[in-house]
């Protein structure tokens, strides 16, 4: 089966980084490359217009941040498979050869790439919270909890079915974990392919991380989570700030969870059993 392949790169003040990495992206010979410029204040747009007229350039005139920028890129993509890369990620030449055959499995949602410093995501539910760690870096294909927003390929039809990244995560943190978790709850698969290599040694993320690592947590068992959440606030009082900010979105979260129920096919126990 032949797949049409799109590459989507969200960009922000990325002229220097894109000048370094785009030559490697173009060597992939994907069917199209889409760059979504999120209202850069440097010369990113003029650099791309001068040097890469073959690229489909989508411009934002005000900064919308990562989830919306990625969603806009995917909406423009015409490929069956869409590669999502950070502007500071550089793919190895044989990336397509090593990841595309996996998409013959119609249940496969995503192939997450081997960034060499990070591997597949191993998930668990412990002490009332969803937890995750990097799995061992080896030469084996592994299931992954999500496909990295910095470097992964996604089946466009399933991405569309899921509604893309949830913009409730704006400015951006854990939105890739969220869509991966939702996909697997619907019965789709995500794998890590060690031979699908990108260079991403010191991520200069498309956007500065606006939130500290413990700012957001995805939870799925309220009866276990609430006691654990109260305990965390008690022992770490600073955690109350992100909790209060999250409560502002609680009505939307509840509505979304209720609408998602009818699509769920995989239990939490079966999902996490893949990582044990």
TrEMBL record:
Gene3D superfamilies: Spore Coat Polysaccharide Biosynthesis Protein SpsA, Chain A. InterPro entries: Glyco_trans_2-like, Nucleotide-diphossugar_trans. Pfam families: Glycos_transf_2 (PF00535). Keywords: Glycosyltransferase, Transferase. Residues 6-159 form the Glycosyltransferase 2-like domain. One of its GO terms (molecular function) is glycosyltransferase activity. Belongs to the glycosyltransferase 2 family. This is Glycosyl transferase, family 2.
């Amino acid at each position: 089966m032949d797949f049409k392949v799109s590459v989507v790169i969200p960009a922000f003040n990325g002229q220097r980084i894109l000048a370094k990495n785009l030559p490697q992206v173009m060597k992939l010979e994907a069917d199209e490359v889409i760059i979504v410029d999120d209202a850069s204040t440097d010369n990113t747009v003029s650099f791309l217009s001068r040097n890469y007229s073959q690229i489909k350039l989508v411009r934002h005139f005000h900064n919308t941040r990562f989830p919306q920028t990625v969603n806009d890129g995917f909406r423009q993509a015409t490929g069956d498979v869409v590669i999502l890369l950070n502007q500071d990620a550089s793919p190895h030449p044989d990336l397509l050869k090593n990841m595309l055959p996996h998409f013959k499995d119609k249940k496969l949602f995503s192939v997450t790439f081997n960034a060499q410093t990070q591997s597949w995501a191993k998930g668990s539910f412990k002490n009332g919270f969803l937890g995750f760690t990097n799995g061992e870096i080896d030469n084996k294909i592994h299931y992954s909890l999500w496909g990295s927003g910095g470097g992964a390929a996604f089946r466009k039809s399933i991405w569309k079915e899921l509604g893309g990244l949830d913009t409730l995560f704006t400015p951006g943190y854990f939105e890739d974990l969220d869509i991966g978790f939702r996909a697997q709850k619907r019965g789709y698969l995500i794998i890590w392919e060690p031979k699908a290599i990108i260079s991403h040694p010191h991520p200069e993320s498309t956007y500065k991380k606006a939130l500290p690592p413990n700012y957001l947590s995805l939870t799925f068992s309220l009866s276990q989570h609430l006691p654990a959440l109260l305990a965390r606030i008690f022992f770490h009082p600073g955690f109350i700030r992100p909790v209060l900010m999250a409560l502002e979105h609680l009505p939307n979260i509840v509505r979304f969870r209720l609408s998602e129920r009818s699509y769920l096919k995989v239990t939490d126990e079966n999902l996490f059993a893949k990582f044990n």
